[in-house]
Amino acid sequence: MSESTLPRSGGIDMLRGASILLVVIHHLGLRIPLHKTQAAGLLPIPLLKGLIYNGYEAVFIFFVISGFLIARHTLQRDGALGAIDWRAFYVRRAARILPCLLALVTVLLILHALAVPNYVIQRSGQSALGATLSALTFTLNLYEGRTGWLPGGWDVLWSLSIEEVFYAAFPLVCLSLGRTRWLVPLLGVLVVSIPFTRAAIVDNEIWQEKAYLPGMGAIAAGVLAALAAVRDPRAGETGRVETPWRRRVLAVSGLVATGMVMFYGAPLWRAVGEGYLLVLVLGAVCLVLASPEGGQTWRGFDWLGAMGRASYEIYLTHMFVVFTLVGLARFSATDQAWGWIWYVPAVLLSWALGWLVARGFSEPANRWLRSRLNAWRVAVRAPA
Question: What pTM was estimated for this model as a whole?
Fold first, then answer.
């Protein structure tokens, strides 16, 4: 089954859209805090802080979604994780990831060379070459952990480093353990380890936030969710449980868990410490399993699904919009009390830019590169 014919989940797209929305708001909120604007006179400050300070948590929801989709699509194509076509898997990953990644790095290097503010790599111990090599080898999180924060346009690539290292190992793990009883326990251990691997990192805030294992634990939770869904006897052809009451229970549970993390984070932290991320991951699993199949979305939230379909492109490019609008806000002296006026334009312009990149570049490049790589793969296998 080709990727284009795989069933698309409107609910998953909507969840992606909500996650990328939080990421965009977070990066603007770090520079124009919403709770310090006139919006604080209209809405509760805890609500405003919850909206702007959960971009990191939104990335962990992305991790869960990615693990679920990768595992589900593998099961639909190959029948079982242990039967994964690893060559085709790597072709799809490369075709999806590399075009936008290479284009973004090229643009960032040009802006660095032109000394454009907010894009110049000037911290001691850092260089454009070092950032480029780390981005292309999926070790940018390690690079930042050693040398400090990179400019925002580069910094977003930390999560890509975690995802792609996981997916580089995914076929190997599937082929070696996918037909044994060890795969599920191993994934389970990875999930449960999230609080402990974060707590084990001290005296390095960046590495604690961007280490491989916690993020991989969230991706593993998504893989387990996909396995649980297809093994449920009530699951349909799409591998999802269709019982309405069960979906509602999962949806409510997921919303409560993620809502607690985002809007009652301080009390939750006092109660469970680093375990708050495990609460978030389990909540995201519930939301993934509860999401509607097909092209269905909740009424009035089609726009969120549309954002989700371009979430990768929005994620990689939204800092261009954020830096531009923050510059305009400061130039016009509207970055304080009137700072709230920039949030809607930031979301809309980030969405528009991501959509344009997806339609005009990444989707055509994905199809072209996949066809080339598949042709090469067939040619290499033919003599054998």
Answer: 0.92
